Amino acid sequence: MDEFEGAIADFTHALKVHPTFAQCHLWRGFAQLRSGNFQQAAGDLSRAIEAIPTCAEAYNHRGIARFYLNKFAAAIADFDQAIRLNPKFADGKFDQAHSDFDAAIAHSSDYGAVYGDRAYLRFKLGDWVGAIADTDQALALATSHGQQLKDIYATRCLTAFCLKESTQGLQAFEQLIALISAQ
Can you tell me the mean pLDDT for 30-48? Predict the structure, then answer.
């Protein structure tokens, strides 16, 4: 049994004992998401949101689950709500989490992540102006220089070309190439 399966099993047991413990739905939703169980993750995170409607992390992670379920408009709505609740997107440290969960969930403090995810969804839905605005925010807030930053520049490049903003598109493309070359 891997760490995620262990976390899921532990939180499932905890919910049998204490079915109204909303944090367990949140934590199990995170573990389900990391395990690729997107439908189950969305369900757990929805239950967490019902109980804790101000939890930005739950909205962001449900948005990710909905993205993988091809529910793009619903994912954008979740990312929007996560940003409204916490524009810098809280660091997401859960001190009370079970040890399996602590080992399994490596939560990022990259505040630009939610904007980057939403930018890609807006691009997919043809909202190119919104996608450019979100890539601006994502780049301003991003703390990583890994794959996520490359994804943000790729989205910005494609979106700029769709808007016939070739100079912006070329600049984003050059940044993307520089990141790839630096590996």
Answer: 93
Q: What is the DSSP string of 28-72?
A: HHHHHHHTT-HHHHHHHHHHHHHH-TT-HHHHHHHHHHHHHTT-H
Average pLDDT over residues 54-77: 90
**Cα 178 versus chain centre, distance:** 25
| Banded model confidence at residue 71, pLDDT cuts 50, 70, 90 | very high
**pTM for the complete prediction?**
0.59
Kindly report each contact of residues 119-123 with a partner whose C-beta sits within 8 Å and lies 24 or more positions away, as own/partner.
Answer: 119/152, 119/155, 119/156, 119/159, 120/151, 120/155, 121/67, 121/72, 121/75, 121/76, 121/79, 122/76, 123/155, 123/158, 123/159, 123/162
Distance of CA 60 to the CA centre of its chain: 5
* Nearest in space to 163 (alpha carbons), one of 131, 135, 138: 131
**CB under 8 Å, gap of 24 or more: what pairs does 62-66 form?**
62/29, 63/114, 63/117, 63/118, 64/33, 64/117, 65/29, 65/32, 65/33, 65/38, 65/39, 65/41, 66/38, 66/42
Cα 108 from Cα 127, distance rounded (Å): 27
